[in-house]
Each structure stands twice: as structure tokens, then as C-alpha cells.
Amino acid sequence: MNEFIHHIHNIYSQFGNSKYDELITQTEHATQCAALAKASGASPDLTIAALLHDIGHLLVLAQGNGVADLSVDDEHEALGARHLAAHFPSGVTAPIALHVAAKRFLCTADDTYFDQLSIGSVRSLEKQGGLMTHQEVMRFERSPHFSSAVELRRWDEAAKDEHIVVDPFDSYLEMMESIITSK
Ligand SMILES: [Fe+2]
Ligand SMILES: [Fe+2]
Questions:
Q1: Which of 13, 15, 143, 168 stands 20 to 30 A from 29 (CA)?
Q2: Residues with CB under 5 A from ligand 1 (ion)
Q3: Which ligand minimizes its atom distance to the CA of 76?
């Protein structure tokens, strides 16, 4: 296995059981999100972005020996994207970097979206900047990764189901490997 994939695998093995303010574990959330991406016919890059979009939360846990301070914004989207950037292309890292902005965008632009948020997502929204200003909306819509970030964020919120079982984390190792080797 590629050394960096081995490292990612280790992070999820060690900290993926954390629920991080949701009802399901981080690994369940990651694999549900990737399964939704795959079912929507997403590219391998976007599927892996869905799988790893919250790796920043796990990095925070790794730094805190399994403990995270939920009272502050952990900026996990930037942390995760930066951590992956040397190995994965922007098709993976940009939607990850933008998935919190996409949440703020959807809460601002889509009247029905806020009501779909989990309790944890509502709790973190204010710390993440709350609703977007008109200018922030315009700027965000111009981002080249706007659509993939919004798509990822819609799967993100849907990927918190306590009752479904999807393909395991390890079933994506090969896909990750082929993205890394073709970068
Ligand atoms: Fe997130
Ligand atoms: Fe998430």
C-alpha cells in the first residue's frame, strides 16, 4: 500500500470511531458520504473528497490524543485539505476545503436547507461564520469548484443515517491509490 494511504488508513483506524458531535461515527459518516457520491455517478476525485472531507476532525483528535474542543471552530476543512494537498489533486482537496463554505452558502441560498441540518451541524454553523453576506455568496458562486463543493455538502448532510450499512472504508483504498499515482 502507498505510504500516505497507509497513513490515512491508520488515522481512520485510530480515530474513525469518534462521533464528533454526530450520532454516527466518523468512519460511518465518511463511507456513507462516499457511497452517496458513488451512487450519484461522481468522479473518483469527488468520491474520495466525499470519503475524506472530514479528515480534519480526525487530525484534531490525533493532535489532542482523542479529545477535541467542540466549543471552537476547528477549521477542519482547511486542515484536512492542507494535509492531503501534497498527495491528492485539487479535484479532491478543493471540495474538501470548501465544504464548510458550501454549508454556509446553502443555508443562505436554499430556504429548505437549514431545516435539514443535524444538531451538530447547527451547533457549528455560527462558529463557522453563520450565513453568508451577499458578497460572500457572489464570490463563492464564482469559485471553479463551486458545484462540486455544493454537491459534496448535500451528500455530507445526508450521510448521517444511523440505520444504513454501506461499503467499508477499505473498499476505497484502490481508488485512492490510483488518484495518488496519477497525480
Ligand atoms: Fe465537515
Ligand atoms: Fe461531514
A1: 143
A2: 54
A3: 1
CATH architecture for the domain at 3-182 = Orthogonal Bundle (1.10)
65-90 tens-digit pLDDT = 888 888 889 999 999 999 999 999 99
Taking the centre of ligand 2 as the mean of its atom positions, its distance from the CA of residue 107, in whole angstroms, is 15
- Whole-angstrom Cα distance, residue 48 to residue 179? 9
- Asked if 132 contacts 105 with a C-beta cutoff of 8 angstroms, the reply is yes
Whole-number Å distance, alpha carbon 53 to ligand 2 midpoint, is 6
Residue with cell 456513507: 32
Dist. CA 121 → ligand 2 center (Å): 9
Of 160, 131, 181, which is closest to residue 53 (Cα–Cα)? 160
Ligand closest in space to the Cα of 124: 1
pLDDT tens for 19-44 read 988 899 999 999 999 999 999 999 99
In this structure, which ligand is nearest to the CA of 77? 1
